[in-house]
Design brief:
Strand content: 15-25%
Number of strands: 8
Order of helices and strands: EHEHEHEHHEHHHEHHEHEH
Mean pLDDT: 97
Distance between the termini: 14 Å
Oligomer: single chain
Radius of gyration: 17 Å
Number of helices: 12
Low-confidence stretches: none
Structural class: alpha/beta
Bound molecules: 2-phosphoglycolic acid
Length: 253
């Protein structure tokens, strides 16, 4: 049985006090949500402060990015050890903004995914097609290429541990959410693909989140789909109320 997960990707938003207030607000009320894994992913400079706010609560800490090398002369980068040191358990890897704005390739995402797993952290590996790719009927091929590239060289056991997030790029921050049928089609394909490449048991254990304009009023329908195991939430994760409302919808689905 896959545990439902709702992760908030705060992106490059908030300041120190707003980050602390949001984290504290979520931690204080996390008990209301019940059986859902809650994760917050603040900007890296606020990880340490947020870790203190959520200590002792059921909210887990995640990072938005990492570098694959363990340490050394990599100015501006952050290692998995540093993330472990401040209490992270999850790392978002290969978010579409990193792929399309910062130029990350499947190869980069793959190196990071290996590093994250080696540090006993859980990667949330993001994949998703552009609008032009969807319109050209290439969605399935793009997802396959990203999954094969990003997850190359992992064992079936590692596949069972990691989290995949399907985030159609055209739905991120646009208010244009994928319909449950559109999302479901890709989630079903993703699980099938993992089953073919690894095995049914591992593929059945991988959590596959949907992301892209998830809001309290569309979460329940999306999360009711059998292969959608939770949500990666951007804009709506910046308010305690909306984040917890999505988590509540996830629990009921
Ligand atoms: P959004 O972002 O919910 O604001 O569309 C989702 C994401 O980028 O993870």
């Amino acid at each position: 049985m896959r545990r439902v997960m709702v992760a908030g990707n705060w992106k490059m938003n908030l300041d120190r006090s707003a980050a602390a207030a949001l984290a504290q607000g979520i931690a204080d009320r996390a008990g209301e949500v019940g059986d859902v894994d809650l994760v917050v992913c603040p900007p890296s400079v606020y990880l340490d402060g947020v870790a203190r706010c959520i200590e002792g609560s059921k909210v887990a800490l995640g990072a938005q990015n990492v570098y694959h090398e363990p340490d050394g002369a990599f100015t501006g980068e952050i290692s998995t050890r540093m993330l472990v040191d401040v209490g992270c358990r999850y790392v978002i890897v290969g978010h579409s903004e990193r792929r399309h704005i910062l130029g990350e390739t499947d190869e980069d995402v793959n190196r990071k995914t290996h590093a994250v797993l080696a540090a006993d952290l859980t990667p949330i590996v993001c994949v998703g097609e552009l609008l032009s790719e969807r319109e050209a009927g290439q969605t399935a091929a793009v997802i396959r290429r990203q999954v094969e590239g990003s997850l190359a060289g992992l064992s079936a056991d590692q596949i069972a541990e990691l989290v995949v997030a399907y985030e159609p790029v055209w739905a991120i921050g646009t208010g244009k959410v994928a319909t449950p049928a559109q999302a479901s089609e890709v989630h079903d394909d993703l699980r099938k693909l993992l089953g073919e490449r690894y095995n049914a048991t591992s593929a059945g254990a991988t959590r596959i989140l949907y992301g892209g304009s998830v809001k309290p009023d569309n979460a329940a329908e999306l999360l009711a789909q059998p292969n959608i195991d939770g949500a990666l939430v951007g804009g709506a994760s910046l308010k305690v109320e909306s984040f917890l409302a999505i988590a509540a919808a996830a629990r009921e689905s």
